[in-house]
Write a structure and sequence with these properties.
Largest sheet: 4 strands, mixed
Radius of gyration: 28 Å
Distance between the termini: 72 Å
Order of helices and strands: HEEEEEEEEEEEEEEE
Strand content: 35-45%
Helix content: under 10%
Structural class: mainly beta
Number of helices: 1
């Protein structure tokens, strides 16, 4: 335990004041943060109109480090190894964005993201009975995946989902009493027409 003013840059003095013996009343832990070879990555996240996006998750690729943009839509990794690094921004409703950058020892590298909104499409289809091919009215059709959607078939058995996020794979579920439940776990929704 140290008393009084001590020069924290003087390793010899620090080491003579600490004992490696266990003391029941005081913790015997010393932390030294070595920042040599380290820099910082910081920046902001915007949409294509220049509006800031709060709550975006930013990941330092190849590590477990991740942060979220704060109220000021700012993020920062305070300790990043120097050299080439990749950071990725992820936000619901937007395409993931990865940027490669170079981190300089002792410096702060600015990486601002401009996020593209995910395209949204209309998905249509018809539910029919397998025994007579007539449309089935009033049943739930469910899409589960990136986002979840539910619609009810009309009098002809037709359904229409609007605002479905494209370029994702969904699970489709159709249930009707006294019939086998239809489940398709690999419904790929792409940009353009999607008639199931």
């Amino acid at each position: 335990y140290l008393y009084g003013a001590v020069d924290l840059t003087d390793a010899a003095t620090l080491n003579t004041h600490y004992s490696l013996s266990v003391n029941a009343n005081l913790p015997n832990t010393i932390f030294h943060r070595n920042t040599s070879g380290m820099g910082e990555i910081a920046g902001h996240v915007y949409d294509t109109a220049g509006v800031v996006i709060e709550g975006a998750n930013i990941e330092l690729i190849g590590t477990t480090a991740n942060v979220q943009t704060d109220r000021d839509v700012f993020y920062k990794f305070a300790v990043v190894p120097q050299g080439n690094q990749s950071v990725e921004a992820v936000m619901f409703g937007y395409n993931d964005k990865r940027i490669d950058t170079a981190v300089i020892q002792g410096g702060q590298t600015t990486v601002d993201f401009i996020m593209q909104p995910k395209p949204q499409v209309t998905v249509t289809g018809k539910v029919v009975r397998s025994d007579n091919m007539n449309g089935i009215a009033g049943i739930n059709v469910i899409l589960e995946g990136y986002d979840d959607y539910i619609v009810v078939t009309d009098a002809q058995g037709k359904f229409n989902f609007t605002g479905v996020y494209a370029n994702e794979t969904y699970k489709m579920i159709v249930e009707y009493p006294h019939f086998v439940t239809y489940i398709n776990e690999n419904v790929a929704i792409s940009e353009g027409a999607n008639n199931l």
